[in-house]
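The freezer alarm interrupted the setup, so I double-checked each line after restarting. Inputs confirmed:
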Amino acid sequence: MTPFNRNFGQGRNTKAVRLDMNWKELTKAGNIYEPGNAATYETGDWRTIRPVWNKDRCIHCLICWRYCPDASIISTDGKFDSFDYKHCKGCGICASVCPVHAIDMFSEDEIDRREEARKNEE
Amino acid sequence: MATLKELAKVEERFVGGHRLCAGCGHGISVRMVLNAAEDANVVVGCATGCLEVASTIYPYTAWNCSFIHSAFENAGATIGGVEAAYKSLKKQGKLDKDFKFVAFGGDGGTYDIGFQSLSGAMERGHNIVYVCLDNEAYMNTGIQRSSATPMGADTTTSPAGKVVPGKQQPRKDLTAIMAAHNIPYAAQTAISNWQDVHRKAKKAFDVEGPAFINILSPCPRGWRYNTPDIVELVKAAVETRFWPMYEVENGKWKLNYKPKKYVPIEEFLKPQGRFRHLFAPGNEHMIKAIQEEIDNRWLALLERCGETPELPPK
Amino acid sequence: MKNKVAITGNEAVAQAMKQINPDVVAAYPITPQTEVVQIFSSFVSNGQVDTEFVTVESEHSAMSAAIGASAAGARAMTATSSQGLALMFEMVYIASSLRLPIVFPVVNRALSGPINIHCDHSDAMGIKDSGVIQLFSENAQEAYDNMIQAVRIAEHPDVLLPVSVNFDGFITSHALDVLEVLDDDTVKSFVGRYQPEEYLLDAKNPVSMGNFDMYDFYFEHKRQQVAAMEAAKKVIEEVGKEYEAISGRKYGLIDAYRLEDAEMAVVVLNSAAGSAKGVVDELREKGMKVGVLKPRAFRPFPFEAVQEALKKVKAVAVLDRAETFSTLGGPMFADVRTALYDLKNDIKVVNYVYGLGGRDLRLEDVEKVFGDLADIIKTGRADKFVNYLGLRE
Ligand SMILES: Cc1ncc(C[n+]2csc(CCOP(=O)(O)OP(=O)(O)O)c2C)c(N)n1
Ligand code: SF4
Ligand code: SF4
Ligand code: SF4
Ligand SMILES: [Mg+2]
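Predicted 3D structure, all chains:
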């Protein structure tokens, strides 16, 4: 498409805006009519270290949820559910604030290497 | 106070997919404040700065509610205008829904260039909450000093050089200045104590009239500390009395936390690259001056809060 | 329906604002606009309007609050002059780029320095490229009429742009004039109710405004503003026709005075057009074929209408009440000259800068201009195209 597409990055076309729209089609004044549509923009690949949850240790206090700057800890019914790896930037704050060390940070490269090794073995 | 289990059920108003740096304090502060609005309709205003630039890159918005940014120095006037419209339309019966209004500004947009606009909005008595996300410098333009930058800090316009060891002036005490506006509510809080942030944000939303909250909102880029340690670092800011937690409600000053023992300012300075030069031989006088300033301000604050003005036991 | 009153320009404009009854007004006092703010405050105090009046601490905040209010879904206004407009400058651009239909009178006054409180157009010319619509008014009647029409122009769905209504400081703002005001109900039904398509206080459809645009979208959004300005030309004329129906007074993009068979024309804004018309009447009696072109809309610049009105003249003098310091004359000169260039009619176009800092434009000054134009036609030469009128040389 156009060469000027860097802002879309890992994002997708939003409902109202497509990358290739001309000036007549784009929303007026750059208004955005889809609240919270940044969720369709994935920042997960910024991550170099990945938080991994240790289910057995977790006491579901949700301190990690409180302190994640990227709203990347998903809770269900007031309990830790999962990480939103599409948006988690790997800052490591959740692991640092967890009172029972139920989150460990692993290098993404290391995880990739292990994945690859495992696939090769199969 | 609501538990985290309950608070986690409130709809997220600042979603992932924004482009603040990994571990940016602004993301934490904004989520905490907006969470305290619970299920109210909220309009958010925002000054130019890292938060605005990172959260509304067209065609994506991280704001899961109505949002307006217009310029850098006018978040107070802009959200004041929104609130005036609300009042007018309500009064005329042209609007039936209830709304709450909150504006976020960085320390640059609040202590410095936006100070007049904020002061005006507070004096006029708009029913708004203004939250300063204080990361102690102009981060969005590349870490220049502001009047919130602490003495001694190395920034790109107060660089620690051979002759001048970083910023020479102590911080402006903005929270006290806002309290001097005699608004119903002014408070200073720190994310290391989320209950305190939550309680103050909730109170600010609930009071009738203008409310101001100052939150210490660390920037890992500008402060140069180990990103995951943000909460420990803010805790050190509170324990060293560098960033006291207090509130002024209808003219009554109240200290919300009193450290049990005397923790020297080095505990806060040491983990941060922006203060590294202060620990080089020859700069001892700077740390001494910083400590003196903190002790004096602490004693003055205790007095205002009706507490015995004495330093914590060493 | 018709009601003749003797009031000043400021009173007329405040009266129009009262009849429009905007939801929010945010303004700050400055000479010569101050009275507008004061009079309007008394309307608020006496419950004659429903307006929330925001007594801001600066003009920068005045426009910022108007922006917030307008974005929130209110019909919002401000008013200013001179330094106030200069301080507001940043926000004027933002108001137009956010496409907010804020109407604001600008009571024209010179810009500092040296500080001066009297009329010229350097304040208005400072925002000529900001994307706001600029209407100019010859007298209090036109200022009043322009205010009421401005609301409809600004809020037209094809336009959605701020509109500034200009009139001359002191000359128009403070002089008593006899004019006709419409009755309240006529104005109320003419301006109608403001119903924006998207606004911050729409609980069901939250919107993000003032977002960060990069090189992938900014250009397109600027192009939209140009299209809105283009559309405004038609809308200004349409609204003018509708307004004629309720007022009996004609309004278009320009006011062409005795130009049908004119060989020489003066192009001039605001109150000076009145003086020029008087001189034209006199000279016509002496047999000179002279006329006046008064742009009512300066932004968008009605170049088609200007071309049409001036295509048969031989020489044109553009009178600018502002300098550009480009050494190429005043701001309107450039626009008129550009508009006439493509006609290839070899029309001679010269510029006169006049009236800076409130200096009077005397009738003999205008006569001199027509005399110069006659010489230019006779000799076929215009050696000096930038001139200063009423200046001690
Ligand atoms: C009138 C004006 N002056 C300067 C700027 C450039 N500018 C944009 S953001 C910024 C600094 C923001 O600092 P702060 O308010 O502390 O927010 P932070 O990015 O640190 O969160 C500056 C100087 C601007 N946008 N507008
Ligand atoms: S902070 Fe630790 S214990 Fe608490 S919910 Fe998160 S992972 Fe579980
Ligand atoms: S690593 Fe950071 S971004 Fe990722 S879930 Fe933990 S706190 Fe959130
Ligand atoms: S530079 Fe600092 S304040 Fe700005 S986004 Fe990055 S961490 Fe946050
Ligand atoms: Mg800052």
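Quick read of the result. Chain A has two domains: 1-41, 42-122.
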